Amino acid sequence: MNKTRTMAKEENSKEKRKDPKEYMKLAVEVMKQSIPERKKKDPSPYVGAVLVFPDGTFETAYRGEFREGDHAEYTLLDKKLRQKDLTGCWLFATLEPCAPGARNAPKLSCAERIVNARISSVWFGIQDKNPKVDHGGIDYLIENNVNVRQFLPEFHKEIEDINKEFMTWANMKNDEEKAKKQKPQDHLNERAEATNIDSLSDEALQKFISESGRKFEPKSDEFLQELKEMDLLEYNEGTKSYLPTGNAILLFGKSPRNKFPQAAVKAKVHYADGKTGVETFNDALVLIPDQIEEWLNKVLPASIDRSKFKAQQVPSFPIEVIREAVINALAHRNYAIDGAKIELEVFPDRILVKSPGEPVPPITIEALNNFSATSYSRNKKIAFIFNEMGYMEESAVGMDTFRLMRENHKLPLPIFKYDGINTVVNFPRTTEAVRGIIDNKSIGSLNKDELSFFDIFRNHKPISKVEFAKQTGLTNRTAERLLKKFTDLNLIRKQGAGPSTTYVINE
Q1: Fold of 20-180
Q2: How many CA atoms does the CB half-sphere of 89 hold within 13 Å?
Q3: pTM over 0.90
């Protein structure tokens, strides 16, 4: 393939561009010509770019085409097409364009060059996990009103394969950077200054004793010694007294927020008539789950709109599921994030639980949504105490409970995301609520029943026609018809052929 290709189109035509898929194919082919950087010890990516004019003519570039290390977009926009008016052009790049700040000043990032060139639409192949970029290029383009889309899934593997070395390196660097940003919570294991044993609540201590099956008095020497062995108390030889750690104050403190202002749950209910109710739970962590359950028992039935002749059909929601989600948030949130409370919001059509902090590595949002997350706890002492009380499995993240929501309660599966501050769990209370969550416009063409059946694919696991019919209770013919409709709408895609054919959700 030539370094530069130009395709002539008929003149005096408003739109002569081909199907975007054709330019995706071309970008992938151009990508393969990329020249690795020899001067850097870190791997460099293979990147191909295609710039398409409204008249259908186009130009290509690849990384290192003119000079080692030059980005494909830079070569294209600054070297090849600097004197051209690029207003309204399309750009196809196999890798997310680099973000502002990713290049040493005074160099502009590729995302900035794209915006300055007034390019209207950008298609990218795969996301750049290099922490200097990591979705920053995409975000910058969107913020500046550039229409951003991703290549079709069929191209992802080819791009990923040729960039395997770079992606491994970028993911490693990304994990390292995230670990640096997450403040250590070692202070929770240390003595909480200006506190003593009287800072602990008898009610909270008794709650732990009762729920864990112990036989102590709350502040007996035997019990305090056991808490010391759990590293929840320190013993001062000089004063012959026990002193609480930060974890002890969080778990059993009379006023935990005196030491940790962020240690609270803000609960809010949005009633169907537009009114709201708010309550904040500030007590010791071991007391909050029961308090939340009591509050939910009051607000969940009342959140149904009965002001109309026909009540909106909002199904009752299993309180034990939300209780477990809140317990997980208490155990796994990042207590080093100041000014951020756990939030519980009840809407007529959905329930949200927001936990400050990203999922702690190696847990990822993708693994949570696939219900394949490994067990790992950010706050091991809190998780241990909750485990002793029977509130949760130590280090677990509620996967089994959440996974069984459809089977046990006929409700859609929860959706996980990270909003920049919180890990958010979204529990749709109705299948209709899924319409506002799944990022695919075609979802709006499904009726209530079809949407309920489509929700089965939300676990991202391949499903055969036979399995789909079995899970939905549909006949084989009806199941086949629905699978074809979902496929035609690009909501799912086929894998394999013949009897081994399976279907999986499109991402």
Answers
A1: Cytidine Deaminase; domain 2 (3.40.140)
A2: 24
A3: no
